[in-house]
Amino acid sequence: MSSRSAWRALHYSAKRRAFQPPTPYRCFSCTTRAQSKPEDERMTHFGFTNVPESEKETRVGAVFSSVAASYDRMNDLMSLGIHRLWKDHFVRSLNPGSCLPALTADQRGWNILDIAGGTGDIAFRMLDHATNINHDMETRVTISDINADMLAEGRKRSLDTPYYNTNRLSFVEANAEHMPHIPDASVDLYTVVFGIRNFTDKQAALNEAFRVLKPGGVFACMEFSKVDNPVLDGIYKRWNFSAIPLIGQVVAGDRDSYQYLVESIERFPSQEEFRGMIQKAGFMIPGQGFENLTGGIAAIHKGIKPIVKA
Amino acid sequence: MAHLARTLPRRALPTQLTPYLRRAQALSTITIQPTPQRTRPTPTPTPNQPKTPLAQLRTYHSTLHPRLPDHEYTNSQTAILTAALDHVPAHGFTSTALTLGARDAGFLDVSVQLLPRGEFDLILFWLASRRGLLRGKVEEGGLFRRIAAEKGKDVYELGVEERVRGLLLERLRMNDEVRHVWQDALAQMSLLSNIPLSLTELHALASDILTLSGDASVDAAWYTRRLAVSAIYASSEVVMTRDPTPDLSETAAFVERRFEDRQAIADKFTGLGQCASFGWNTAVGLGRSWGLKI
């Protein structure tokens, strides 16, 4: 509940900040004006409300800190368990791990970077797939998340997996828009699952992904998207805006976080727009570029970093 | 006379047409040539519209338009697929061959994500590239001369039927090196989600074979001939996978028999048609003799 009060505090302080005195305080002897916010700061959306770019990060942080503990249970309830099928399909289609003997040191195991994968949902699935399906004991996953609470949840869960305390699994707290600790061209597979929606500057994150990937490396992203069937869309919207905040209130005791969740889903660009953003970052698009899941409720986007021939 | 005919583009010279063309050339020096100004701009896909392999932009053959590429894979995809084809005889049409191909082309193991259909992309690429090779062999001119030499004829004496048969056998022989893994490929192609693209490719092959052979039918025969060639090719492929002879002589004999069957069926239908029209004429004549106003 402390996180909830933190969220409330943020919420109210944001409101208070919007208040402006009728006559500006002009005083040359103090720095009040210098302390006040510049008016022309770039705005970004936080659900359906607009907030300054500098504020979105903390707000999203507060949301996910408050939902970290009940994350899995809530996902099951909100998606009726379908999110597990999506995640399994995502990992199976990527087929992580090489089943062939490596010829060079570079080919030994994949270096996977799982962005916004705090609770380890995708990371553990990928390691399991590499180990059990492809018999690849070298593939390693770095879980990167901006939120310490989500990472803590992932660390806790990793205790039950065989990868705990091995060099195949590591946790990093970082902002995906700027990752100076990861060298250029060092990652085989970059995944971000249900995360990129919350980034302040999505294009910057895509550019950073392009930088850290090896030539030939793959950017794979699963995110909520636009439903193409109008009937399904109607049902889906009704579920989103009526049921999910209610479930959030009853189960997690936090309506506002889940209200933000559905609003951020609504604001996320369509399949075609997001494909354009991936292309803009420099990636090659295989085939159609995206794969709709459950009629477009979620979509898998892929991009491949081209090889530059010397 | 033959040298006059040889100056024309060979594709515009189906065998039945050559006597008429020769006569026309003897009468006047006007040659029928495609006018480049009349080419319609081919619709190019906008960058927003991603290319899918085998997406047909134009569904008809025309000598006035430049030929469509055999496949629409991008350069990187083609590099991986071409390299992967070298591994097909050893590993079959599998993801292993694809991964090895990606490594050979300088990509990573993960780069096979570039091919969303996986193994089926490899099969489609094999089909499309072999189809392109067949066309290349015909267009450089050597293939029909060889087929004619085998039969002890001049190349201009070859009938459409003989050309079709020759091309079909030639295409089957291209599958010789992957004969032992071709059943797996056929199984992949017959999966429900893969059937539409497999049939498109089969039609493209039948259409190519007939066009290259100089078939100029524009009536219902256009459909029946493509259907016949597709059926013969598809069944011969299955026979070929079980053919123990090293030179595919059993398959060749099978193809020969199927063409005879085709001829027999065609004769039956012609006979039935004649019989029906005779019956109809008789009935009309009989009716008129009875005073009916027909």
Automatic annotation (TrEMBL), chain A:
Cleavable signal peptide: none
Catalysed reactions, semicolon-separated: a 2-methoxy-6-(all-trans-polyprenyl)benzene-1,4-diol + S-adenosyl-L-methionine = a 5-methoxy-2-methyl-3-(all-trans-polyprenyl)benzene-1,4-diol + S-adenosyl-L-homocysteine + H(+)
Cellular location(s): Mitochondrion inner membrane
Bilayer topology: Peripheral membrane protein
Keywords noted in UniProt: Membrane, Methyltransferase, Mitochondrion, Mitochondrion inner membrane, S-adenosyl-L-methionine, Transferase, Ubiquinone biosynthesis
Predominant subcellular localization, coarse grouping: mitochondrion
Any one annotated GO CC term: extrinsic component of mitochondrial inner membrane
Protein's UniProt keywords contain Transcription regulation: no
Molecular function as annotated in GO: 2-methoxy-6-polyprenyl-1,4-benzoquinol methyltransferase activity
GO aspect biological process, one term: methylation
Ligand binding (S-adenosyl-L-methionine): 119, 145, 175-176
UniProt cross-references to Pfam families, sorted A to Z: Ubie_methyltran
Its EC number(s): 2.1.1.201
Keyword presence, S-adenosyl-L-methionine: yes
Pathway(s) of this molecule: Cofactor biosynthesis; ubiquinone biosynthesis
InterPro entries named in the record: SAM-dependent_MTases_sf, UbiE/COQ5_MeTrFase, UbiE/COQ5_MeTrFase_CS
Function, in words: Methyltransferase required for the conversion of 2-polyprenyl-6-methoxy-1,4-benzoquinol (DDMQH2) to 2-polyprenyl-3-methyl-6-methoxy-1,4-benzoquinol (DMQH2).
Similarity comment text for this entry: Belongs to the class I-like SAM-binding methyltransferase superfamily. MenG/UbiE family.
Quaternary structure and interacting proteins, as annotated: Component of a multi-subunit COQ enzyme complex, composed of at least COQ3, COQ4, COQ5, COQ6, COQ7 and COQ9.
Name of this protein: 2-methoxy-6-polyprenyl-1,4-benzoquinol methylase, mitochondrial
UniProt lineage: Eukaryota, Fungi, Dikarya, Ascomycota, Pezizomycotina
From TrEMBL, chain B:
Any GO BP: ubiquinone biosynthetic process
Pathway noted in the entry: Cofactor biosynthesis; ubiquinone biosynthesis
Ubiquinone biosynthesis protein COQ9 HTH domain segment(s): 77-102
Lineage, top ranks: Eukaryota, Fungi, Dikarya, Ascomycota, Pezizomycotina
Name of protein: Ubiquinone biosynthesis protein
Main location: mitochondrion
Pfam families, per database record: COQ9, COQ9_N
UniProt-annotated stretches for the region Disordered: 29-52
Family: Belongs to the COQ9 family.
UniProt xrefs under InterPro entries: COQ9_C, COQ9_HTH, Ubiq_biosynth_COQ9
